[in-house]
Design a protein that fits this description.
mainly alpha; Serine Threonine Protein Phosphatase 5, Tetratricopeptide repeat; single chain; two-stranded antiparallel ribbon; 2% strand; 6 helices; elongated
Length: 161
């Protein structure tokens, strides 16, 4: 007697093996904490690089948006606070820039942050007498010139030339 479907057992066995070996019905595993941390760190690094590129192009709103997003994850990073201060200063938010500079100076004594704050204070038309003084340089005579646009350095810290 001849079989009507001689290949049916082979096809059925192949189908069972493909589904049990992780075919389309396979459920995704939840990410491990280590993988989630790596993904979050990669996203922060991508945001930092993008923000620096936007600052180089003079797109300060976009740079500030990215730096503030990273700052929410790393609130005690003085270089990041310095970058936020430079971006706020470039956008005309002098009070926000002053607060960010002062917070950065509480966390570090890096020369780049101090220099940026000195330039910021020199350009301030009416400096606050209660503000902390660093390197107390005399204000230029004949009005405060417009400070040069900061140049984000290779290490990601925005600096003035």
């Amino acid at each position: 007697m001849r079989r009507l479907f001689p290949y049916l057992p082979v096809v059925f066995a192949g189908l069972v093996l493909s589904v049990s070996a992780g075919g389309p019905a396979r459920a995704a595993k939840p990410p491990t904490p280590a993988r989630a941390d790596r993904e979050a760190a990669a996203k922060l690094a991508k945001d930092l690089a993008f923000a620096s590129e936007m600052a180089r192009k003079g797109l300060w709103r976009e740079a500030l948006f990215r730096w503030e997003r990273v700052l929410a994850q790393r609130p005690d990073d003085p270089r990041l606070l310095n970058n936020v201060a430079v971006a706020r200063e470039a956008l005309g938010d002098r009070e926000g820039a002053r607060q960010a500079y002062e917070r950065a100076l509480q966390l570090t004594t890096e020369r780049a942050v101090e220099d940026n704050f000195i330039y910021f204070r020199r350009a301030d038309p009416a400096p606050d007498p209660a503000a902390p003084g660093i390197g107390e340089a005399p204000a230029p005579t004949g009005g405060a010139p417009e400070p040069p646009a900061p140049d984000p350095a290779a290490d990601g810290t925005a600096r003035r030339p």
